[in-house]
Structure prediction request, 379 residues.
Amino acid sequence: MRTACWSLPDLIESPSLLMTIGAFLLLLGPLIVLHELGHYWAGRLFGVRALTFSVGIGKELWHTIDKRGTRWRIAAIPLGGYVLFAGDADASSKPDPALEGKSAEELKGTFPGAALWQRTLIVLAGPMANLLVAVGIIAAFAMAYGVPNNPPVIGGFSEKSPARTAGLQEGDKIVSIDGNRIDTFKDVAEAVMIYPGRTVEVTAERAGRTVTVPVTLAERIVTDRFGNESRFGMMGIAGGQMELREIGPVSAIGYGFTESVSIMKTMLIGLKQIVTGERSIDEMGGPVKIAKFSGERLSMGWLAFVDFAALISINLAFINLLPIPTLDGGHLAMYAAEAVRRKPLGVRSQEWAFRGGLALVLGVAVFVTFNDVASLFFK
Prediction:
């Protein structure tokens, strides 16, 4: 039986509802705008007319029309946005059936009339804008505070350490985990945190020779000051005091890209684990959880909030690149099919694909929202 999970200490620590709503809007608003501006500016670059630029979905609250005829609008539900280009049937960028069979001259300035590579770049520009935001934030933090530089040498073990049980020793230098190269102690944590309970192959250097042992990772559940629980895999080793290395702008940008791609890989692994049942579906989060975490991070200070914004920006890029019709990744999958077939998919095929994709997206959205609300009040 589930019981209410909010205790008095939790309520004291938690930010106010007003702060939570404000933080949520402050987080998602700019990220959505930047995502859609990516599409918009790429479209303008290739001469595709934008009919509508919407921040939010649903009922229109405000609009203005610029000299190019683009309707800039703010809508009531701040959970997305879209750019409606000439030739789109609706906000999902489904081609207008009325344009089928039109000449190249008649299609000029429309999205369907753009070359395949141009349409690909226009669609890709949205997620890439979110990725660049995250890269910029991570790079700025790296330049300001440095990057972890601890060598992956075992300095000691925790109680009941899986690594020690497996035969690793103090002084061993970990060089790879499951074949993935390890350069710093931070790499060790990132390589195992997503796999609680799994057995991984750890290769280490010891006294001039190489040893490889299977380590069954322990599961660690961490609860933060707001009562949020996270489940991690751990080897049970300390790496000494944290060392930070200063880096310049160019190296920081490279570090930002590497970290962003690593986070996206972790998200992909996590999604796969949920689909296969290795992780609970309760670990999925939707808009309600994002709002909750936004308020909590803002209550911890601007640095924590901006750091969270980088994570959510990567999350938006990742979700939009999933090959689901109506999402950017679905469009890219169709363009890949078009490149192979040397002609677009039929209008009817695209219609069914978009309907199926929309049903899937809406179904997941309803589920995660319900799951979010349930997790706030019951456990």
